Amino acid sequence: MSSTVWRNWSRIESVTPARVAYPSSPDEVVQAIAAARADGLRVKPIGAGHSFTGIAVAPGVQLDLRNLQGVLAVDEQRHRVKLAAGTHLYRLPELLKPHGLALQNMGDIDAQTIAGATSTGTHGTGHAFGGLATQIVALTLATADGRVLEISENSNPELLDAARLGLGALGVLLDITVQCVPAFQLQAIEKPEPLAEVLAQWEQRALGADHFEFYWFPHTQTALTKTNTRLPMDAPRKPLGGFQRWMDDDFMSNTVFNWVCHVGKAAPALTPPINRLAQRLTNNREFTDVSTSVFTTKREVRFREMEYALPREEVPDVLRALDRLITQNGWRISFPVEVRVAAPDDIWLSTAHGRESGYVAIHRFFKEDPHTYFRLAEQIFRAHGGRPHWGKMHYQDASTLAPTYPRFGDFLAVRDKLDPERVFANDYLDRVLGA
Ligand SMILES: Cc1cc2nc3c(=O)[nH]c(=O)nc-3n(C[C@H](O)[C@H](O)[C@H](O)COP(=O)(O)OP(=O)(O)OC[C@H]3O[C@@H](n4cnc5c(N)ncnc54)[C@H](O)[C@@H]3O)c2cc1C
């Protein structure tokens, strides 16, 4: 089918694919790969286009998996659910409800597809919880040579730790089996606290809750902390009222924040007082609701983002260094810095591979140039042993990334075996993995 221009969510990447295919069965995916190869074109499946990097850019054949969605099988005893790869995360509450199940942990939004989210290492927060890929126990992969590989603990197990976080470099995921948990609620406590105190007690705070995170607005000395505790479904539910939810999460976080960003761009000197005001207006709030409603929110103000995974203990020093960097350069930054944690895992290209991790994410409004801020912040992240999120902006390439991942060479060997002709490559993958 002929194609028009494709743009990612943050509007920093765009491409007009040679053609777009909308397969509606695994066989049609295999046929689309074969047809692309016959025409000398590369192939790239896309999810929801929510990566900030060019990882999903498809100049050849773009595979849009919107017709491969839904639940394919449920193992009620083991709480495992097999999903078609193009299933959007926002559909999961409705799809999992009849089975009384939920995802163990989630990031900030639910716009992504299950395949797109796991492929870049999407994660939430929680010292005892890994990213989405750690919850994946099996998958099916269509490879460049037309094979369909079942990958699980029992079938091609040596490929699981490469394929569940594969950057889209190994083939097209057709389905994904997720280890779910019984549905649960979260009690959320959100409040402003002195940044210096939160940093001084960082390890205690990170380890002292199921899911701890905080936001720091540059030009203020306040951290907006979020502490979530897991509760069973039969605990009393105390959701935010409809009006309060709209006021805080829609009007303040999207409508007013959009206005703040536009004012900050037109008159940067206003950003510090606006940030201080925003932080004073932030509510103390406490509520209990089903997990998905607490983990995820709507993000309607477009931005660009860089996020680095660090050894967890490095987080306070990195925040202090970022504060100095912003002050010394006289920048006016309207977007907050977000800080989260995750458990170590064994997945080869996971940013949390082999270490307790803290995540620090920096943002810029999409109408402002992010590069100077991001490049200098990246020097701080790298000096503290950071690894960049594969779906968020960074300036590294294979030569600098390889030494930070003990299993990088093993991943490249699997790639050489499964995709020797680089059917699934694009410029971003050439940069971060090598051509
Ligand atoms: C507003 C916003 C909030 C975010 N919040 C978080 C967060 O809280 N935590 C976090 O870690 N990240 C977060 N991200 C980043 C986001 O989760 C990742 O970039 C994610 O990969 C995007 O998923 P997607 O479905 O849009 O995939 P895309 O960006 O479209 O694609 C990502 C990769 O997946 C590959 N892919 C897609 N489908 C398949 C398939 N079937 N088989 C093989 N490969 C496939 C693509 O080829 C590409 O390589 C956020 C992004 C935005 C814009």
Automatic annotation (TrEMBL):
Keywords: Oxidoreductase. Transmembrane segments: none annotated. Gene3D superfamilies: 3.30.465.10, 3.30.70.2520, Uridine Diphospho-n-acetylenolpyruvylglucosamine Reductase, domain 2, Vanillyl-alcohol Oxidase, Chain A, domain 4. Residues 13-183 form the FAD-binding PCMH-type domain. GO terms for cellular component: membrane. The keyword Oxidoreductase applies. Coiled coil: none annotated. GO terms for molecular function: D-arabinono-1,4-lactone oxidase activity; FAD binding; L-gulono-1,4-lactone dehydrogenase activity. It comes from the Bacteria. Pfam families: ALO, FAD_binding_4. NCBIfam families: bact_FAD_ox. This is FAD-linked oxidoreductase.
